[in-house]
Amino acid sequence: MLTVHQFPCLSDNYGFLIHDEVTGQTAAIDTPCGKTYKEELEKKGWKLTHILNTHHHHDHVGGNDELKKTGDNVKVYGPVDEKDKIPGLDTAVGGGDCFEFGPLKASVMDVGGHTHGHIAYHFDSEKKVFCGDALFALGCGKMFEGTPAQFWKTLQGLRELPDETEVYCAHEYTASNAKFAVSIEPSNADLMKRFEVIKEQRARGEPTVPTQIGLEKLTNPFLRVDISEEIRKNVGVTAGDSGADAFAKVRRAKDTFRG
Questions:
Q1: Does 114 qualify as catalytic in the annotation?
Q2: pTM of the predicted model, to two decimals?
């Protein structure tokens, strides 16, 4: 069984430590802040054995060097297409690769788009995916390096995971994402109900992460642009647009949204 310990980190990141009770192995999913991770490891009484980086941005790899020094043999995994940008990298992995974490199998997914080489770590037996900035609750990452076709393929792949899969994304952006989602699909009853729940959660200071694939399929505009005629109309999708074109129009609308 995989235990997930989630905690706030930096201004709006989430840190994740995953722990296998059988072997005692413990992995940091990205490393926004080495100091915070060390404090959380001490609280839990866990010894770090792995660092699993999703992409090269500093708020995901900034604590690598500091945390690698906490143990005798901490192994850093990271995206093969960004291998020169991952501090302390030991093992470069890409989409389709698998490795063992304790008795569990971690499958690597290619989720490029936010950055070119972005990856996610999927634990199918545990119904959990750690996807960095590829997919957010009610959103997705900004397209800094990838292309619309690449990012749309990523989102389609994530959408195909089982509905009950828990999605551990790296930031608490859900309230602002919800405002945008409501602005382009106000007739979505599931979305409007979720919007009210999110407002209540955030008013109580509660996290909205993790989410689930099934819930995102019902409410996340970036997973619905090929499904919802309301979204397509409101962002200007035309009959000749491809799925990637439609995604790009939603992404541009979000980038300029000031709700």
A1: yes
A2: 0.97
